[in-house]
Amino acid sequence: MKKVLEAKNLNKYFHIPVDFHVLKDINLTVRSGEFSAIVGPSGSGKSTLLYVLSSLDREYEGDVFFGDVELKTLSNKKLAHLRNKSIGFIFQFHYLLADFTSLDNVMLPGLKLGDLTHEELEEKAMQKLDLLGIADQASKRVNRLSGGQQQRVSIARALINEPQIIFCDEPTGNLDSKNARIVYDMLKNLTREFDQTILMVTHDDSYLSEIDRQIKLLDGKILDRQT
Amino acid sequence: MNRFPILKIVITHLISRKRQTIVSMLGVTFGITVFIFQAGVITGLQDFFIEKTINATAHIQIYQDKNQKSPPVLLSIYDEEETWVSVPNIKSKNELPKLKRGLQIVEILESYPEVTGVSPSLSTQAIFKIGVADVSGIINGVNIRKENQLFDLEEDMVSGSIIRLETVNNGIILGSGLAESMGTMLNDNITVVSPGGVALQMKVVGILDTGLRELDNSRAYSSIRNSQKLMDVTGNYITNINIKLEDVEQSGVLAREFQSRFGYTAEDWKDANEGIFSVFRIQNIVTYLVIISILLVSGFGIFNILSMMIYEKMNDIAILKSIGYTDVDIRNVFLLEALIIGFLGGLLGLVIGFVISWITSIIPTNIEGFVSSEYLSINFDPLFYLLAFLFGLVATGIAGYLPAKKASKIDPINIIRSQ
């Protein structure tokens, strides 16, 4: 299967408040269509690894290849384009624009990409909302929605530009078990039905059996690799 | 295609923060309103005054300066070097202020293409008497048609008519203030006495109100012939030549040319009114300082509100960046918000400024002073409106650019990690 993401000899240090070696010699490959999860106790560096892999954090040593390009070589503008076109984000705190409706939030990355007309984009955004079962909430402002609904809006937003990979940072961390179940099922559905590549950080091990691949992290090192 | 992906964000931000948007808009509105109103009133008054003065004074006036002292005649005899000549108490020669060949000069002046009107005149001080009342003033002997061509006297007549100066023998036109202080009315007979002691019976054929108080209080017009009689001089005696030009701005250059060509003093209207123009200059500086400080204050208002907004919108900025909006997009979002605030606020300011100016211009104020006028004359020059608007946009643009630039530098990872 095609490589989507590859980290080579990745090291990362924090200097504030004290020098700290967070990620130690990480070598990792994510292939197309995989549903993988980075797991580990808190403080193991899972989120830090995700931020580095997902281009948000570019202060690292070593190489991170997205497709063929190393992230550090990209200009801010090219990086923005990469995030826009090829990467979807789902965060723990759903990070939606509070003043906008669900539909507008989903459309925002598409507006930036500008490949579709406004009408086509709106139709596509509605399809994504429908896929996630919240089409009826489309015209509501997102701060009127429940936590589970908001997280589904952010999944729809992550999908709108059909990214090569979606990064999820504790996507269920802020949800009750029922909503967490729904969100999980939806993510799984995306990988099964639409062959969507997903890399997720989680400490919630109740659903790990359903995930293709677990990347166990302890004290900044990958413990066990099943590739 | 979506050419403006940020427009949606800008509009949503502005609408969802209505109060902030309106407050900062009103800051600009207030600045522009004051700009329009103050500039309109001040320059309106100035223009009114200049127009009145230009109308009432010649662009160039040629006369003989009696106070010019003649050099001592001894100088022509003892002209070697190393010779000192000292003559104390030199007195001017007792020369009449006559312009020799005055009427020929008039003809020459009329042949200049830049000159639109030439009016020869002679003026003398006189005492105007009716019964026991007497008032001193200045009587101008003029060719009334030519004088009218220069100064539009007909416009300013409150009663009588200028042409009766030609038809009525011994006719006289009085300034309104002069007539009032004597208590004369149209068709009254008055006596005019010159400094030389010549007395003349004259009939009031018109009353003139130019709006310039000083003139209205002292000036009277008669025919050249009658003034010559008063001064006891011959038929080609004139003391002044008033000239109007096609282009007022040329007055300085032409005045110098006439002075050297005819040998008499030629004064242009700016020299004659120098005092007023220096007052205007100071007035303008003060006006612009006030306007600039108001716009500066509204600029700071916008700067503050946008800076606050950026702190509030840290999350939004992080999200937008994580979903692919560039630094430039983020900068443009906030810059555009500032410019829209400036644009709408400015537009509103123009409208309110115009309305206030217009209302002021139709309320009778009856100013009595240097210049008298029933209404405040306000300048509605579109250039001010354009200038005020551009100034407002530039001020908000600069005020918006700094916080916008700061917003564009925000690194999303710092926001996301801190949650």
Write structural notes for this entry:
The complex is a heterodimer of chains A (227) and B (419). Chain A is an alpha/beta fold and 227 residues long. Chain A contains 6 helices and 10 strands, in the order E-E-E-H-E-E-H-E-H-H-H-E-H-E-E-E. In chain A, the strands form 2 sheets. A 6-stranded mixed sheet of chain A has the order 6-7-8-3-9-10. In chain A, helix 3 packs parallel to helix 5, helix 4 packs across helix 5 and helix 5 packs parallel to helix 6. The radius of gyration of chain A is 17 Å and the shape is globular. The model of chain A has no long low-confidence stretch (mean pLDDT 87). Chain B is an alpha+beta fold and 419 residues long. Chain B contains 17 helices and 12 strands. Chain B has a 6-stranded mixed beta barrel, surrounded by 4 helices. In chain B, helix 1 crosses helix 15, helix 2 runs antiparallel to helix 16 and helix 13 packs parallel to helix 16. Chain B starts with 6 loop residues before the first helix and ends with a helix. The mean pLDDT of chain B is 84. Classes of the chains: A alpha/beta (227), B alpha+beta (419). Chains A and B meet through helix 2 and helix 3 of A and helix 1, helix 14, helix 15 and helix 17 of B.
